[in-house]
């Protein structure tokens, strides 16, 4: 394979990849880090060629690595073999994946979203936990949703922790972002139901009439949906809380809603 071997943590590529743990570096470069050969191959299959492929000795003889290397080199990227210590530093884990790769971030403009291309879409307002967002992206992909729209001040969907939680689904669904005013204006053109989720709603999530394509709107982990967003929905629904817990975890509630709406 046409690759070079790097053993120093001061190597420029290693430093640039490690810096992608920082949001500012991701924003400035427009790049992000994905870990694991399976996920890298899924990304390639979804049309995303890696900019950098970094692999350790455990992956050197893996048959799928050739595919990842070929896609990277064909796209003008860089491939380096590194030792385990570098992989540990890059992933900040004792048990790192044997392959990590760097990809370009993709955000779909709201105007490019075709609502009818999927039965269901998910909008997340001010989601703060990268694990919650990654889990929602994975669930949206699994249920055949078109994508996830980030409304207001949300966590970065391309954080290392968030991408890990997507298990590769970050490459499979559309990701868009919007300010609250942009979302409210765009929502006016939505052809199906816009469904808010509220603990104070009086409509049970199973009894509402969902017109497809449906757009499910989820609130922030602490405050829930702000009134101006709840008021902009066609219907607000509640998943029954039968025990002592007063709310569900955001990603669990989103999963229940996605499968309720899509059937
Ligand atoms: N204290 C917050 C509140 O009053 O809304 C709790 C927010 S909850 C942890 C985060 C989000 O998950 C909510 O904004 C809503 O979108 C969704 N959610 C959680 N439990 C829900 C339920 N039982 N019914 C509908 N949505 C729920």
From TrEMBL:
The keyword Ion transport does not apply. It comes from the Bacteria. Gene3D superfamilies: 3.30.1330.30, 3.40.1280.10. InterPro entries: Alpha/beta_knot_MTases, MRM3-like_sub_bind, Ribosomal_eL30-like_sf, rRNA_Methyltransferase, SpoU_MeTrfase, SpoU_subst-bd, tRNA_m1G_MTases_N. Keywords: Methyltransferase, Transferase. Pfam families: MRM3-like_sub_bind (PF22435), SpoU_methylase (PF00588). It is an enzyme of class 2 (transferase). One of its GO terms (molecular function) is RNA binding. Its EC number is 2.1.1.-. GO terms for cellular component: cytoplasm. Residues 33-109 form the RNA 2-O ribose methyltransferase substrate binding domain. Belongs to the class IV-like SAM-binding methyltransferase superfamily. RNA methyltransferase TrmH family. This is 23S rRNA methyltransferase. The lineage of its organism: Bacteria, Pseudomonadati, Pseudomonadota, Alphaproteobacteria, Caulobacterales.
């Amino acid at each position: 394979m046409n690759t070079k071997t790097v053993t120093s943590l001061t190597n420029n590529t290693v430093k640039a990849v490690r810096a992608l743990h920082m949001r500012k570096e991701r924003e400035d470069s427009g790049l992000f880090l994905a870990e694991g050969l399976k996920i890298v191959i899924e990304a390639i299959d979804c049309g995303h060629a890696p900019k950098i492929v970094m692999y350790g000795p455990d992956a050197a003889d893996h048959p799928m690595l050739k595919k990842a290397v070929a896609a990277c080199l064909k796209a003008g990227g860089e491939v380096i073999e590194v030792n385990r210590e570098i992989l540990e530093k890059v992933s900040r884990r004792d048990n790192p994946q044997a392959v990590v790769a760097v990809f370009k971030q993709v955000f779909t403009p709201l105007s490019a979203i075709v609502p009818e291309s999927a039965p269901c879409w998910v909008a997340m307002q001010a989601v703060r936990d990268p694990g919650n967002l990654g889990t929602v992206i994975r669930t949206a992909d699994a249920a055949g949703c078109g994508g996830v729209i980030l409304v207001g001040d949300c966590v970065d969907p391309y954080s290392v922790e968030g991408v890990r939680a997507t298990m590769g689904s970050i490459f499979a669904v559309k990701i868009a972002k919007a300010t609250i005013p942009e979302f409210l204006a765009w929502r006016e053109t939505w052809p199906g139901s816009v469904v808010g989720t509220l603990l104070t709603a009086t409509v049970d999530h199973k009894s509402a009439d969902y017109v497809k394509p449906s757009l499910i709107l989820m609130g922030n982990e602490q405050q829930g949906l702000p009134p101006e967003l709840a008021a902009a929905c066609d219907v607000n629904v509640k998943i029954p809380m039968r025990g002592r817990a007063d709310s569900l975890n955001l990603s669990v509630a989103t999963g229940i809603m996605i499968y309720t709406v899509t059937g």
